[in-house]
Every structure is written in C-alpha cells, then in structure tokens.
Amino acid sequence: MLKVIYCSLCAEDPVAARTKLSEFVAKDYTFGSAREGEFATQLVEAYTAEDAQAFGQACADFNTIRKLPPDAISMLSKCKRAITVEEDPEPEPVDEDTLEANPQDDEEEEELDDLC
User: Are 83 and 51 in contact (CB under 8 A)?
Assistant: First the structure.
C-alpha cells in the first residue's frame, strides 16, 4: 500500500495518492490508524501543502521506528525534490581523483540526508 502512495507522489499526482489512501482505509479499517497509514497520510498532506520540511520530518520519524528500504528512500527523495521550492545552485566541478571507491554507498547516504 505504501509503494502505491510513493509511486503516485513520484508521478506528482497527490490527488491519486489521496484517492488511493482513501481506498486503502476503506478496504482495511486498521490501515488508517496503523503506523504505515499515519505515515502515508503525513506524506500526502505534506506533499499537497508543498511542505518539504514536513515531508522530510515524516520520513525521518518513520525511519527511526522502521528502517525504510533503499527503493523507498529513492522514491521519497525524488518526491521531496519535486516539492522543494528553493533553486539549486550551479554544480561545482567534480575532481575525478577524489571520488571514493564505492559511489553507490555515497548516493544512498546522500539520498537519506536529502530525505531528512
């Protein structure tokens, strides 16, 4: 259920996310009051309000209780970037000699940092 909400938000469609959330609550009466349901509600509300800080805080709070998998972190980071209003500064040139051996680990850490 959470992945459907993530995908809807990644597609920049908060209306579909809210509709799916309502459907899930109607199908499973325990979902709305469960930790996952509350998390999904917080995500949809923060995305709708275009509040990147609330979105990140909801993710950080949920992640302290239940670790988010890498695919969820990736999707949620994309969602948060979509609602972030601040302009990105010009990227600095990258020195290839300073790159670490495993850039994938750095990307996951950066995504989690961006998320929170």
Answer: yes
- How far apart are the two ends of the chain, measured CA to CA in Å? 22
Tens-digit pLDDT profile for residues 59-106: 999 999 999 999 999 999 999 998 885 434 455 555 555 555 555 555
- pTM of the shown model: 0.72
> What does the angle CA 83 – CA 88 – CA 90 come to, to the nearest 5 degrees?
160
Domain limits, the chain: 2-84
Specify the residue for token string 């805080």: 57
- Residue 86 has what DSSP assignment? S
Query: Which residues are CB-neighbours of 12 under 8 A, at least 6 positions away?
Result: 82
Please work out, in degrees rounded to the nearest 5, the angle formed at the alpha carbon of residue 94 by the alpha carbons of 93 and 100: 165
pLDDT digits (tens, 9 = 90+) for 19-54: 999 999 999 989 988 999 999 999 999 999 999 999
95 neighbors 27 (Cβ within 8 angstroms): no
